[in-house]
Amino acid sequence: MFTEYNALIDSLKGKDISFDRLYNKHNTLNTEIEKMTAKDGFDEVKIDQLKKEKLLLKDEILAYLKNAANK
Description:
Residues 19-67 form a coiled coil. This is DUF465 domain-containing protein. InterPro entries: DUF465 (IPR007420), DUF465_sf (IPR038444). Keywords: Coiled coil. Pfam families: DUF465 (PF04325). The protein is mostly helical. The chain has one domain (14-70). The protein has 3 helices and no strands. Helix 2 packs antiparallel against helix 3 (44-69). The radius of gyration is 14 Å and the shape is elongated. The mean pLDDT is 95.
């Protein structure tokens, strides 16, 4: 995710509480979606909701990274 910001992501992880919250929530949602889709008869509506939430977090992370890069 956002390979052009890898160095910045590494510098923020563990040092910026707000970034950590966004980053960890995104990863948690990703893991949850993967687990749910691996099961037979998964709940597509729930997965769609989680994917939308994950996409919003991704947008927030990108905005956060762009802001941090401009400081």
